[in-house]
Amino acid sequence: MKRVLPAWARSVRVRLLVIALLPMLVLLPLLLGMTVLRWSGKVDDLLTVKVNGDLTIAHQYMARLRENSGDRIEALGASVAFAEGMARPETGSASDFLERRRRALGFDFLYVTTRDGRIIPSDTPSGTDFAAQDWPVVRAALEGTTRSAVDIFDHEQLTALAPSLAERARVPIVPTRAAVPTSRSVVENGMVLHAAAPVRLPDGRRAALVGGRLLNRNLDFIDTINDLVYRDRSLPEGSQGTATLFLDDVRVSTNVRLFEGARALGTRVSAEVRSQVLERGEVWLDRAFVVNDWYISAYEPIVDSHGERVGMLYVGFLEAPFRQARISSIILIAVIFLAITAISVPIFLRWARRIFRPLERMNDTIGRVESGDLGARIGTGGGRGEISRVARHLDDLLDQVQERDRRLRDWAGELNDKVEERTRDLQEANRRLERTTEQLVMSEKLAAVGEITAGVAHEINNPVAVIQGNLDVARQSLGSRVDEVATEFDLIDDQVHRISAIISKLLQFARPGEFSGSANRLVPAEVIDDCLVLTRHLSSKAGVTVERDDRSMASILVERTELQQVIINLVVNAIHAMPEGGTLTLETEDRDVEGVPGVAIIVTDTGRGMMPEVLKRIFDPFFTTKRSQGTGLGLSISQTLMGRAGGWIEAASEEGAGSRFTVWIPAFQ
């Protein structure tokens, strides 16, 4: 179906205004949106570049700190003071010297180890159960090379160095949203800046001077990185720079706040960051959710002296101020655009109205003409513009249209008078033709019934006579045994008589003046019993359940075969309406109609029902819905038979809900 546009959408003025305003109201906002989107992407790129630069500074500081540790260890090992302090290790002076130097250099442990595994500790390390040469840093120093690295010491190794280090390294794990599920509750390993330098003992043996600094809970270390990376005014107001050192995925040193005054030690990094940085060894440069807010973040893996990824270095700053600044900028751009639009559009529309006013007058005039006012005119005056000339031409055309309309109306009036006269003649002829046709159809039907009746009477009466004769022969042949099948023979007699009666009634329907019947006093329930016996094979075959409810024992005066014919016809019709099975209910009850006592026989089915247009025609002769299976005479004959007995038949039905036929016959007085 073709869609019809509303009148305002078909207006030339509206279309021209749309064409004029489209660049300003659609294309310009689209261009601004694309520009803002591109600008937003560039800002994100700049933020990523900045946080990458921040990570570079933090990385360089940590590398420099590691190198300084190695340089200080190497300088101490090459000093005269070291040679003099190590001169008498058996007296304990060597340990005292190492302890003093450990404190002076800011190390958490300091010891000397030889190739044979002997350890000369400071006062802090215990020196027991500690395999120093397992570390690549120490092995390199014993081979003559100064080396420093970040290494992970487990709880036993830290305890062997100093019990206080094991306690300092302990960080309880705090449940963190979006982190990888874990069963751990505490981190006991320690991340250490580990350095070793080759030395010569006074007895000439080669040894290694080893020192280290625990980074767990080392807040001075992480605050120094944060102050170095995010100096004053390096971030916009409201933003905040943070730095963190991770052991595996747990924060062991951080200035990120879990809440006011408490650092987020023990919280964990998200599973997404862990996968990219720790598992794949890649640098993360993107926004990330850190503890309780979104940060522009940078993470890089920390590799120990064994070449394994053991932790992460993080720097980042709050995203919220940048996001708020971006939103404020977008809102400002939108407000400026709306303000410009609000000022310029009315000015443009006022200017455009002067151009479109003649077109609007033309449109109004055409609308009035379409509504029947043929005298409407534009009347633009003496304007010389193109639109004014078009308007004058249109007025001239309207004058011509008005004159032609007047002539057409005159011709139409004359034509209508002639059409009405001819129509009356045709209607009268049509009515006569319909009456003649109905008479012809009825005559043809009655003629056909007469021929059918004569043929039926001749063809059926002969075999009925043969059946009756053979039945008599069977009685004579059985002799005394005839009583055993007396009921069946009586039933056959009844049905032969009924066949003769049906033929008589069919002839009676065609020529009612030539036939008459005799009435009998009957109880309807007994007649129904006989009818159900005759139709039992049909109901069984169709899977129909028959139910009875006889509430009347009154007598009626009607010929038995006629009542049987009516009931059987209704029962068979009901069975045919339930081809897939159902329930057939037959009831009798006493019912007074207009003060006259009588008996009602009710036949109800649960079949397909009938449409209203079918229901109102079911008693018409030759009307049938069974096509080749019926003649259309059953209900018509039944209605005629009951009418002659002083009763009637009525039907009620609903499509899909079954039908209900009621036969009423006056009671015998």
TrEMBL record:
What domain of life does the UniProt record list for this protein's source? Bacteria
What does the entry list under GO cellular component? plasma membrane
- Protein's recorded name: histidine kinase
Q: Start and end of every HAMP domain?
A: 353-406
Which of the seven top EC classes does this enzyme belong to? transferase
Q: Which residues form the Histidine kinase domain?
A: 455-669
- Could you confirm whether the keyword Membrane appears in this record? yes
Keyword terms of this UniProt record = Cell membrane, Coiled coil, Kinase, Membrane, Phosphoprotein, Transferase, Transmembrane, Transmembrane helix
Coiled-coil segments on the chain, per record: 412-446
Keyword match Transmembrane: yes
What would you give as a GO molecular function for this chain, any one? phosphorelay sensor kinase activity
Where is it localised?
Cell membrane
Q: What is the topology of this protein in the membrane according to its UniProt annotation?
A: Multi-pass membrane protein
| Catalysed reactions, as listed in the record | ATP + protein L-histidine = ADP + protein N-phospho-L-histidine
Q: Which organism is it from?
A: Halomonas elongata (strain ATCC 33173 / DSM 2581 / NBRC 15536 / NCIMB 2198 / 1H9)
Task: Report the EC code(s) recorded for this entry.
Answer: 2.7.13.3
Transmembrane portions of the chain: 330-352
